[in-house]
Write a structure and sequence with these properties.
The chain has 328 residues and is an alpha/beta fold. Helices cover 35% and strands 19% of the residues. 29% of the residues are buried.
Length: 328
């Protein structure tokens, strides 16, 4: 995705443009210096860095433009309402987020999460409001009770379209972006979970955590999974010759493999974390103790469960503090 910078006009630039327009109306034939000033403002707007724009308090809206090379896409016919006793269909393999055992792995990860949240006092009864951030093709969400008020959001529009066609109802779905904003009100959900999401957020991880806390009711739970020392040991045991291949399914360049091994050895000593790659396909690793201490600044840490998700990711269970209703 690219940002259409010409749509992002700071307040001061808007005021300058208004002044230019007023002078144009008054003079009918604007002098050359007025035209130059308009061009200067436009160039300033086009030069805005997207990260700075989104951090600025005066920005009201952002327009996202698909990349020119984006492929065509067709949406499946929306299915009729399913009988709750009917088994959900399985998505086509190209939509899977795991190489194999799509159903088995999703059931395992869902049951493990439910065990952890149950110990923390949350039962997913009818009407419990649940958000799956990074739901993909609902590999985990499909195993939750259909009587909950369940939402799934994901970056991949094709996966979301499939979920909307075949899993809604009982669940609901929406496409989201990479920047930390979701289209839900404050304190909407009793449980927010993000399996294998913070493992790929190389930037703005704190902002995403704060956004998820905003959506969680005071006293509600967040179940977030990370790569840590357990993930590194998994990579070493699965493929001793290429740790990065064990993680991603294909070998990285030698320099990347060497860097991964060096940083893995230093994790928890002089490194609190590192990322292999950046952007959507980043692989982000944290020292377990460090990330738990860091997240404890924002929420109560209820539980830490190694190998809770995807066989090698550690789950951190947080609770939004009941006394921070006005934390924003």
């Amino acid at each position: 995705m690219r940002f259409r910078a010409t749509q992002l006009v700071p307040r001061r630039a808007k005021e300058r443009l208004r002044g230019v327009v007023r002078r144009e109306v008054a003079l009918a034939q604007p002098p050359s210096e007025t035209i130059v000033e308009v061009r200067e403002v436009i160039e300033q707007v086009r030069a805005l860095d997207p990260d700075q724009v989104l951090a600025a308090p005066y920005v009201a809206a952002v327009t996202v433009v698909p990349e020119p090379e984006a492929t065509d896409q067709a949406f499946p016919r929306f299915a009729p309402q399913l009988d709750q006793a009917t088994e959900f269909p399985v998505p086509p393999k190209h939509l899977w987020t795991v190489a194999e055992q799509f159903l088995e792995s999703g059931q395992r990860d869902a049951e493990r999460m439910l065990d952890v949240t149950r110990r923390a006092g949350l039962e997913l009864d009818a009407g419990t409001r649940v958000l799956d951030l990074g739901c993909g093709p609902a590999r985990v969400l499909r195993w939750l009770p259909p009587s909950i008020d369940g939402w799934g959001v994901d970056l991949n529009a094709e996966r979301i379209a499939w979920c909307q066609a075949f899993l809604s109802p009982p669940f609901r779905f929406a496409t989201c972006g990479t920047y930390p904003h979701l289209p839900f009100g404050d304190a909407t959900f009793d449980l927010v979970y993000a399996g294998s999401v913070f493992t790929h957020i190389a930037e703005l991880a704190d902002s995403w955590l704060l956004e998820l806390l905003r959506l969680t009711v005071p006293g509600g739970l967040l179940y977030l999974t990370v790569h840590d020392q357990s993930s590194i040991e998994f990579c070493r045991s699965i493929d001793p010759s290429s740790h990065t291949r064990a993680l991603t399914g294909f070998a990285q360049p030698d320099a990347t493999e060497q860097r991964f091994r060096q940083w893995s050895d230093r994790l928890g000593t002089d490194l609190d974390g590192f990322t292999i790659g950046r952007g959507y396909y980043a692989q982000v690793f944290y020292d377990r103790d460090s990330i738990v201490r860091h997240w404890a600044r924002y929420a109560e840490v209820v539980d830490v469960v190694p190998e809770a998700f995807a066989w090698h990711q550690t789950a951190v269970l947080l609770r939004r503090r009941a006394d921070d209703a006005d934390w924003r």
